[in-house]
Prior knowledge:
The chain is α+β, with helices and mostly antiparallel strands. It has 2 domains: 34-116, no CATH class; 126-414, Extracellular Endonuclease, Chain A (3-Layer(aba) Sandwich), CATH 3.40.570.10. Helices cover 19% and strands 28% of the residues. Strands 9, 10, 11, 12, 15, 18, 19, 20 and 21 form a 9-stranded mixed β-sheet that branches. Strands 3-2-5-6-7-8 form a 6-stranded antiparallel β-sheet, with no helix packed on it. It has a two-stranded antiparallel ribbon with strand order 1-4. Mean pLDDT is 90; it is low at 1-30. The structure holds 2-acetamido-2-deoxy-beta-D-glucopyranose (8 copies). The site of one 2-acetamido-2-deoxy-beta-D-glucopyranose has 5 residues, from strand 9.
Amino acid sequence: MVAHRCVIFKILFIFLLCGSVICANSKNRQQRGCQIKLPTDIPKGEPLYLSGNPGRFRLFKPINQTNHLAVNSKLTLFCPGRRNTLLNSPNNSTELTCGSGNRFVNENGHEVNLSQFNCTRGIEGDLHMTREKCSSNRGYIYDIGFRIDSRNFLTVFKVCYDNSSETTFFSTHHINGPVVKYFVKDSRRRNFKTTGMSATTKADKVYNKKSQIDRFSDIFGTQQIYINNSMHLSRGHLTPDADFVFPNFQLATYFYVNVAPEFQSVNGGNWARIEFMARELASDYKSDFTIYTGIFETLSLPNRLGQPVEIFLDSNHKINAPKWFWKVIKNERLDAGIVMITLNNPFAKRDEIVEFCPNVCKRASLTSKHFEIIKKGYTFCCEVNAFKNVVHDLPRNFTAPNLLECAKANYLFDNEVQLQ
Ligand SMILES: *[C@@H]1O[C@H](CO)[C@@H](O)[C@H](O)[C@H]1NC(C)=O
Ligand SMILES: *[C@@H]1O[C@H](CO)[C@@H](O)[C@H](O)[C@H]1NC(C)=O
Ligand SMILES: *[C@@H]1O[C@H](CO)[C@@H](O)[C@H](O)[C@H]1NC(C)=O
Ligand SMILES: *[C@@H]1O[C@H](CO)[C@@H](O)[C@H](O)[C@H]1NC(C)=O
Ligand SMILES: *[C@@H]1O[C@H](CO)[C@@H](O)[C@H](O)[C@H]1NC(C)=O
Ligand SMILES: *[C@@H]1O[C@H](CO)[C@@H](O)[C@H](O)[C@H]1NC(C)=O
Ligand SMILES: *[C@@H]1O[C@H](CO)[C@@H](O)[C@H](O)[C@H]1NC(C)=O
Ligand SMILES: *[C@@H]1O[C@H](CO)[C@@H](O)[C@H](O)[C@H]1NC(C)=O
């Protein structure tokens, strides 16, 4: 009798448990496959996540905070680079399969968690020169991304670069709007690489404050007022690190071909605000955004006689400080775009600033009370077509017939805090 009751109780217990927790859970999982949740499932020093098969790998592209891989689908984890392997493994890659239990299983059939796989070393981005012309045939497209093997290179973003004058015209990438706010934080910093540039250019030497002071003293005399400890030219990212979700992609932006000299008060002022706006817009519209970031004209500053002198950081006149930084922000789904343009001259007088295409910031409701503050980088906005009439860097077939407007009413980008 007692035994009998116990059995009934056990059956009842299993039935209840199955009805409420375990079975519901496994049913749920059945439909969902294996999960990749951002940023929690991504370990420090993560490998590259590749979808597809060897020879046809693609960079895994998340579509939401939680991503579901169907049962039987595969994800390859890869640690490229010299003497780099997966932690606690002699191998530099491993293929995971989403098992029927909705957990990833490794090549030996064991259930594993994504967060247990990282690389022994940081992954270095690389640069791949192509023969594709850009910027009215003045430059070549350089792909920046990861080399998988001798035949396969996976691109994260592109730069249009003239290898004879050593000038970058623009950089282009995409912001993954639905996912960008779930980016994986990483405190690692990386030295900028001079890959792709001539060894004589010495981009890595000219940005330090001491050499800037020396350079400006040569041009303007030792009494020059432009460069001191608080005012100097920084490495202004064209494609910014913070637009990418994975730290490996963020760190791959650290190439000199992806920067131009930008006054620090502008770089940390309205330029940071524009980068923030681009991410906010992509995130608000939950859409893939195409971004082009470039420079226009060379900055001149007056000497003691009031004559304008063009600014180059090096005596060979290769690395010029641009007068303008511009960023095209395009919502692909709406075929809508806008160009934000910032003056890289904290010393300009208001009456010498010429907006070279009609200002549409107000019409697009993309305004900030900081845009008119010259020290932070005087900023205005144009429609893509009007901008293309003046600046001839964008591909001919790149268009955005509609004006991109702010997704939220009265959303002002006035905060000083949390621009990252
Ligand atoms: C991988 O994880 C281990 C253990 O947490 C850590 O010591 C190592 O620094 C990580 N690798 C990288 C490249 O950050
Ligand atoms: C993204 O995830 C959220 C939360 O899980 C969900 O509400 C939303 O529908 C998902 N979006 C898409 C496009 O799947
Ligand atoms: C990965 O390991 C394989 C086998 O050891 C080796 O042939 C290959 O060169 C490595 N790949 C990289 C990018 O280091
Ligand atoms: C490393 O790769 C070899 C060859 O593919 C495989 O036999 C071995 O199991 C792998 N080792 C680990 C730890 O995954
Ligand atoms: C994977 O993660 C789950 C939940 O965090 C944990 O219960 C499980 O033990 C982990 N498995 C491995 C192999 O680390
Ligand atoms: C620039 O790159 C192109 C294409 O790769 C190449 O043909 C040309 O020789 C290079 N010029 C210089 C000056 O390096
Ligand atoms: C640095 O130069 C800027 C611009 O000329 C000037 O406003 C600032 O007062 C200077 N700072 C110091 C510490 O000299
Ligand atoms: C523009 O043309 C290039 C090369 O001709 C092509 O690769 C690219 O996909 C085109 N872009 C658009 C937006 O049509």
